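re: that complex we talked abt at group meeting.

here r the seqs, copy pasted straight from the sheet so there may be weird spacing, ignore it
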Amino acid sequence: MTKIDAEPQFWLMKSEPDVYGWDDLVEQKEGTWDGVRNHLAARNLRTMKQGDLAFFYHSNIGLEIVGIMKISKAGMTDPTDPDGKWAAVKVKPVKKLKRAITLKEIKATPELADMELLRQSRLSVSGVRPSEWDFILEMAKRKLPGTK
DNA sequence: GCCAACGTTGGC
DNA sequence: GCCAACGTTGGC
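got the structure back, here u go
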């Protein structure tokens, strides 16, 4: 039998924690990722499929990946857009990382130097390659080098 | 179709 | 608070 389901895709989504942070998502159990007004970010939102996984990144304050969420509903129209042209998705928290991975650490890691997060620093929704996803998960299992 | 001016995002 | 990197807008 042919397997139809594609591998899940990986993403990274930014939010300012004083506006909407990881804890807010956990409290709500499910959140709608809307208000994106950048075409490349919107294209990424439209590409997402239900079941895809995404890092939750705290921008502005924290500057770190704090948790993993799952796309619970894909292909939505942004409810905050009166013209109905922009895209949105729904997300559910999966788990918090054992420790947050900071932007500083990502920048210092050669394996992650090519991440879309770094190449397009202003992009609020970016893609993550499977190798990068796995690498970050491995990093989160270990302590920061140099700390005891 | 170019480009200057301006606005926004996000890191420092 | 500043500034770099983009995106958008509007005059020409």
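couple things i noticed - Residues 130-141 of chain A form the longest helix (12 residues). Chain A has a mean pLDDT of 91.
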